User: Which sequence fits this backbone?
């Protein structure tokens, strides 16, 4: 059992645990038997013969029952040894450990119950064996043996329970550490409440002490009654002897004499050998009693020295040597003092009820707060921090409850901080998500506008192609007209016709060109709408980027806050450590100061002793000087020189006395000051000690804060990383939008070029139209000359070539615009996707903030 | 004025007084009646002695009766203290101790300064103080009559010689 030597390896040895339990099983009952047996023997006044038998029976019963108990216990604690051995061999399964833990946790209770069953059995065996072996042993003695054995056994088993429980504690803790789940452990342990433990313990002790007191009182009372009855019987015998000696040979006559006594007694005459009854009722005396009378001596005697069913006194008749015996049954003797036995019984019952009542109250005082505390701890575990432990008491449980309350308060404050941070992150993310929504919408609108522009552009292209084919037709017509002019001389009639066709064609071209201009205007309008949508998108994206940056800044700030909190807690812990070190130094310094001051006090006491000696000598000197002065005065003139010396000596002595008195005052002041100083130092030392304790508590609290802050810091860092990614996406979007705007600018510029070209084309067409009209007019005036016609035809061809070139340019510009629109659409698509990605990141951020908030909401604060 | 000064100045034989304290007052005795002054010490009770005798003390093998001056003067007994003294006085053959609260010094007494008050001696045989010695700068000393003191202690009934 020596704890100092037990290494972990030794503790985990199954053999060692087994040996320990067996030693306990034998040692505790042995001690109990050694304490109870001598007391019982002395109480019941056993004769030496009975003593030997009693000791032998007790020894045999003890050995048999201890072996039985050991067999039963082995079955109960075998799983412990097995689990420990397998742990030692590193082959233990979780089943082994569970069985071992259940056995080690429940063994004290099982051993206790087993012992409680075996002790009454053993006591009954001893009582019955003694009663059967000695026929004159009273039933009362056998009952007392049973009662004492049972009660003493109960108390010894209480000791066994607490002793073995304490002895197995290291094993219990060791095995419990290998079962991680407290609920699983709880299912394995059979609970016993503190209330029940206290009740059983107090009841056992009370039963033992009260039953021993009652037995002792009854035995003492029985002795007193016996003496009292024997005295009365002696008087009866004396009267009866006188009556028989006076010539009344008849016992009945003697009985008549004794009727008047208060004690009810019967008379019996034995023969001179005291071997048989010669007169009186033959069954009144047992054979054992007659034998006892012979052994003690028939001349005169009484039954105070042996156990018998009756109280006896006898005397030999002087006349004929017969023995006259006075018999009083025990029940009659008891009756003379009333019903004492039932009073003892009632006393026993009342004492036991009182003790059990007090034990119940004490146990209730402990177990009720424990229940409340457990409920409070479970409330905190389930996250409910709203209420305190809910009670106050004057003992250690009160301190515990207050600690609980403080813990809940700290947790509540911390969780409040975390919840506020989560709320801020959530709000920022929500704002950013709103902007992202509007960006997605605007991007979609932009894509739609672009599509519509492209459709218009396609229409323009088609028109342009139609115009080109018309222009081609015009050109060939012009060529033909030129040829015709060359053949003017030949066919002037044809010319007229051709000029009509030309005029119709020109009209056609003019209409197409006007349609083209209209389409180009619509493109311009669409492009304006597109530019406006792109501007709106761009501003939305910029707003989004700003709020994303704001979220980023918030998260960074929170992260810095957490880092600063960790830093502050670390430095606080450092301060606490420094404070504790400083306080230790103060404590050492004060201890040194106290030692020095105590030394000073001792020294000043020594000085006081020396001063007393000096004082004494000075006093003596002063007295001598006075005596010298008296002698000198008596001597007159002759004493003159002597008197001078006497005066000087007296002065000297007086000065010494004054000095010693002053020194004494100073020393007393020093002693008072040093005792004040010691008091102050002790108070200071107590304060320092308290300070060290408080600092250590503060250190623990700071440690908790640091770990909580670290946890939240890493959470926030994740958020900051997510925000960085979002900021990048947002910047990308802004860049894309800038490029889209540039593209739109280009489209506008192209549109403006086109407009200018259209004006040129239109004026060309009008000019051509005029020429065609002129041609129409001139054709009728064929006479005006071929030269002018040819001239006009040339101009027409030239104009047609210019129109064709302009149309070519226009077609090119339309292709370029289509390319731009293609690129704008692609940009808008990628813009939309970026916005969607930002939205996802925002949702993720929101989800994280939500999770954080959920974690906090698990605690009800 | 110290004793040595007095001797040198006057040259004549003055009266010398030893001064004591008892019951808060200063008393004086003629030095010729004093043998020595010793420290106060434990007294052995003497059964059957006159009530004013506190007990006996041993001094160099001689047993002497001791009288408490405070009680003789009709006041409280002298308290036990380190300053307490016993003056060993002699009147004829009779030697006994006189317990006093403190012994001060020896002073000379000018016969002219001795004031014999008729009031003090009016009841002859009863006055313990038979003179008052006045000295400049200090309260007057009451000079005790040892004869009257012995008379008061032993009364007229007992002979002092028997007691010693």
Assistant:
């Amino acid at each position: 059992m020596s704890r100092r030597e037990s290494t972990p390896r030794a503790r985990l040895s199954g053999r060692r645990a087994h040996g320990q339990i067996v030693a306990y099983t034998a040692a505790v009952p042995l001690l109990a038997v050694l304490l109870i047996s001598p007391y019982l023997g002395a109480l019941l006044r056993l004769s030496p013969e009975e003593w030997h038998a009693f000791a032998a029976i007790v020894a045999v019963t003890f050995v048999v029952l201890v072996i039985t108990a050991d067999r039963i216990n082995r079955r109960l604690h075998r799983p412990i040894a097995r689990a420990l051995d397998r742990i030692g061999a590193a082959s233990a399964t979780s089943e082994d450990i569970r069985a071992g833990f259940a056995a080690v946790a429940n063994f004290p209770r099982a051993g206790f119950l087993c012992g409680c069953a075996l002790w009454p059995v053993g006591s009954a065996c001893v009582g019955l064996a003694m009663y059967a072996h000695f026929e004159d042993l009273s039933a009362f003695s056998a009952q007392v043996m049973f009662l004492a054995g049972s009660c003493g056994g109960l108390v010894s088993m209480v000791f066994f329970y607490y002793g073995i429980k304490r002895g197995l504690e290291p094993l219990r803790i060791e095995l419990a550490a290998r079962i991680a789940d407290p609920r699983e452990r709880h299912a394995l342990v059979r609970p016993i409440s503190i209330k029940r433990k206290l009740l059983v313990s107090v009841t056992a002790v009370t039963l033992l002490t009260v039953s021993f007191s009652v037995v002792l009182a009854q035995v003492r009372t029985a002795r007193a009654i016996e003496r009292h009855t024997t005295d009365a019987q002696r008087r009866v015998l004396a009267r009866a002897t006188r009556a028989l000696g006076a010539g009344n040979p008849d016992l009945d006559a003697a009985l008549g004499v004794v009727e008047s006594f208060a004690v009810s007694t019967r008379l019996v005459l034995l023969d001179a050998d005291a071997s048989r009854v010669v007169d009186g009722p033959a069954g009144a005396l047992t054979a054992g009693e007659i034998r006892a009378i012979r052994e003690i001596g028939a001349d005169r005697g009484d039954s105070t020295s042996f156990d018998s069913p009756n109280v006896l006194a006898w005397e030999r008749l002087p006349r004929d040597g017969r023995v006259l015996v006075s018999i009083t049954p025990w029940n009659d003797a008891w009756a003379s003092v009333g019903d004492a036995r039932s009073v003892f019984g009632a006393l026993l019952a009342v004492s036991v009820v009182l003790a059990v009542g007090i034990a119940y109250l004490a146990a209730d005082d402990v177990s009720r707060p424990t229940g409340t505390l457990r409920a409070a701890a479970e409330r905190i575990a389930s996250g409910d921090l709203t209420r305190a432990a809910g009670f106050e008491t004057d003992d250690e449980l009160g301190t515990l409850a207050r600690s609980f309350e403080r813990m809940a308060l700290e947790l509540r404050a911390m969780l409040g901080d975390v919840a506020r941070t989560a709320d801020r992150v959530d709000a920022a993310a929500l704002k950013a998500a709103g902007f992202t929504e509007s960006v997605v919408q605007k991007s979609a609108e932009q894509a739609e506008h672009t599509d519509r522009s492209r459709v218009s552009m396609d229409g323009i292209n088609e028109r342009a192609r139609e115009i080109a084919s018309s222009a081609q037709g015009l050109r060939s017509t012009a060529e033909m007209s030129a040829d015709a002019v060359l053949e003017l001389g030949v066919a002037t009639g044809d010319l007229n016709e051709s000029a009509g066709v030309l005029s119709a064609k020109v009209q056609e071209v003019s209409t197409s060109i006007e349609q083209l201009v209209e389409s180009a205007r619509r493109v311009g309008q669409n492009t304006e709408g597109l530019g406006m949508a792109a501007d709106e998108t761009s501003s939305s994206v910029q707003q989004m980027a700003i709020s994303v940056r704001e979220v980023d800044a918030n998260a960074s700030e929170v992260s810095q806050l957490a880092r600063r909190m960790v830093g502050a807690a670390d430095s606080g812990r450092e301060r606490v450590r420094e404070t504790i070190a400083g306080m230790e130094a103060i404590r050492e310094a004060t201890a040194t100061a106290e030692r020095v001051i105590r030394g000073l006090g001792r020294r000043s006491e020594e000085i006081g002793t020396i001063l007393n000696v000096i004082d004494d000598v000075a006093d003596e000197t002063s007295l001598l000087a006075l005596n010298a002065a008296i002698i000198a005065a008596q001597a007159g003139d002759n004493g003159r020189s002597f008197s001078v010396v006497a005066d000087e000596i007296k002065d000297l002595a007086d000065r010494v006395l004054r000095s010693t008195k002053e020194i004494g005052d100073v020393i007393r002041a020093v002693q008072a000051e040093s005792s004040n100083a010691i008091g102050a130092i002790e108070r200071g030392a107590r304060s320092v000690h308290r300070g060290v304790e408080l600092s250590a508590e503060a250190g623990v609290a700071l440690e908790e804060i640091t770990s909580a802050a670290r946890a939240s810091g890493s959470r926030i860092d994740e958020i900051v990383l997510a925000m960085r990614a979002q900021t990048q996406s947002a910047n990308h979007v802004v860049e894309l939008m800038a490029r889209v705007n540039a593209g739109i600018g280009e489209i506008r510029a192209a549109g403006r070029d086109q407009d200018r070209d259209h004006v040129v084309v239109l004026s060309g067409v009008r000019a051509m139209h005029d020429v065609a009209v002129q041609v129409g007019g001139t054709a009728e005036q064929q006479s005006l000359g071929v030269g002018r016609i040819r001239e006009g035809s040339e101009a027409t061809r030239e104009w047609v070539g210019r129109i064709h070139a302009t149309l070519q340019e226009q077609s090119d510009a339309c292709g370029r615009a289509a390319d731009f629109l293609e690129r704008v659409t692609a940009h808008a698509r990628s813009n939309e996707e970026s916005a969607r990605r930002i939205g996802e990141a925002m949702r993720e951020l929101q989800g994280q903030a939500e999770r954080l908030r959920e974690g906090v909401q698990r605690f009800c604060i | 004025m110290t004793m040595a000064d007095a001797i040198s100045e006057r040259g004549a034989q003055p009266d010398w007084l030893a001064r004591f304290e008892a019951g808060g007052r200063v008393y004086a005795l003629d030095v010729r009646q004093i043998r020595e002054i010793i420290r106060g010490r434990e007294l052995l009770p003497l059964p059957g002695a006159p009530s004013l005798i506190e007990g006996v003390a041993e001094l160099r093998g001689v047993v002497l009766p001791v009288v408490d001056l405070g009680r003789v003067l009709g006041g409280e007994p002298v308290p036990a203290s380190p300053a307490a003294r016993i003056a060993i006085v002699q009147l004829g053959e009779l030697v006994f101790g006189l317990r006093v609260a403190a012994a001060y010094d020896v002073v000379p007494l000018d016969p002219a300064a001795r004031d014999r008050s008729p009031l003090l001696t009016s009841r002859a045989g009863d006055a313990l103080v038979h003179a008052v010695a006045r000295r400049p700068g200090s309260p007057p000393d009451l000079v005790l009559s040892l004869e009257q003191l012995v008379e008061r202690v032993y009364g007229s009934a007992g002979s002092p010689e028997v007691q010693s």
User: Anything to note?
Assistant: Chain B has five helices and eleven strands. The radius of gyration of chain B is 16 Å. The longest strand of chain B covers residues 15-22. Chain B has one domain: 18-163.
